[in-house]
Design a protein that fits this description.
With 366 residues, this protein is α+β, with helices and mostly antiparallel strands. It has 13 helices and twelve strands. The chain is elongated.
Length: 366
């Protein structure tokens, strides 16, 4: 049975600083083994890791050294998470990474914070998936890292990236000029990945006289499965979401929505749009734009309602203060022992009405 590596696309945004080809092989092998294991502890024998990674050195000393250096570099490239409440946290991939040189075993446990990247799937789970063997057979660390990113676009056959982001993601030395990148980075990528991705091509896009972007294109995997060769499309893969699977959003759409609303709000709007499309039979050109439009309209309504409520509340409080003042003055003029119930019923009803309206508006606002 083939070992499969699968993780959330977000993991592709983490640059694996200074990892060599052997260390990348170790890391992807461990990612394959912990797949669907959640946060359980996993015990692996050295021989199993050697076999999966095609590790060529016979010495256990070298093997342990490479395994340990993999973990050391993983610790350095910790993952950063910033929450809405202002909490910033950094954490590493493995909560536990224990090498036993006597038993010749490695015990690992995925950090609970990383479980969402390697294990848990939800409706919006856009993921990278590839065969471990195919990754291991690549020689260049640049080819391996580019291969992972391209696999995230396996169904579109298109990845366009700025030269700055490309340098960052693949950890290209800052000292490299474009001719260095051509020779030491793009050349091995082109050579190795052309055997994997059908019609693979790398195009440099200029802005003025400088290279601004790199465009990677290849025949999408879904087209190859059907033995159909189609023109490369730059459209991102869109998933059918919602109750009726009729709301189509790409990963970039989800990121865009995430900037303006909470996860619960996104869920609610997708459900609302899905039901609306199914019941009305209407069509929308861009579902992300529709959700953003609805969200903006709802926010404006809330803002207007809040302003109206504040104005109404101010008016009620003014009238209420006048009424209390009038009541106090009236009390002074009445014989001792007169109760509030003796005041005219119309004024009591008016006050009760105002308080009821104020309460209703407040509840509506909530």
């Amino acid at each position: 049975m083939k070992e499969i590596v699968r993780y959330k696309n977000e993991f592709n945004t983490v640059p694996l600083r200074n990892f060599n080809a052997v260390e990348l092989d170790f890391l992807m092998t461990l990612c394959a083994k912990v797949r669907e294991k959640n946060t359980e502890k996993l015990l692996l024998h050295f021989n199993e890791i050697r076999k999966l990674t095609h590790y060529s050195q016979n010495s256990n000393v070298d093997f342990v050294k490479d395994l340990d250096s993999t973990n050391a570099k993983l610790i350095q490239c910790n993952y950063r998470e910033e929450e809405e409440d202002g909490i910033i946290e950094r954490f590493t991939l493995f909560h536990n990474f224990r090498i036993d040189t006597h038993q010749k075993t490695l015990e690992i446990q995925v950090n609970k914070k990383f479980e969402m990247l390697l294990n848990k799937k939800d409706e919006y789970w856009f993921f990278t998936r590839f065969e471990l063997e195919e990754f291991i057979n690549l020689k260049s660390s640049y080819a391996k890292e580019c291969y992972r990113r391209l696999k995230a676009f396996r169904n579109t056959g298109f990845w366009e990236v700025s030269i700055e982001e490309f340098r960052y993601l693949l950890d290209v030395p800052e000292s490299y000029l474009m001719h260095n990148i051509d020779k030491r980075v793009l050349k091995p990528i082109k050579k190795e990945l052309s055997d994997i991705f059908f019609n693979f091509n790398i195009k440099k896009i200029k802005k003025g006289r400088k290279i601004a972007k790199l465009r990677f294109t290849f025949t999408p995997e879904k087209n190859l499965k059907n033995n159909v060769i189609l023109e490369i499309s730059s459209t991102e893969e869109k998933k059918g979401l919602g109750l009726f699977k009729n709301v189509f959003l790409a990963e970039s759409d989800i990121r865009l929505l995430d900037k303006t609303m909470t996860k619960k709000e996104i869920d609610d709007y997708i459900h609302r749009l899905s039901t609306h499309i199914e019941s009305k039979g209407v069509k929308y050109k861009n579902h992300a734009a529709t959700i953003l439009k609805w969200h903006k309209q709802d926010q404006e309504k809330k803002k207007s309602k809040k302003t109206n409520f504040q104005n109404f509340e101010t008016g009620i409080r003014t009238n209420l203060n006048d009424y209390i003042k009038k009541k106090d003055e009236g009390r002074k003029q009445l014989p001792k022992g007169t109760k509030f119930q003796n005041f005219p019923q119309t004024e009591q009803d008016e006050l009760a009405n105002m308080l009821k309206k104020m309460s209703n508006l407040h509840n509506e606002e909530q």
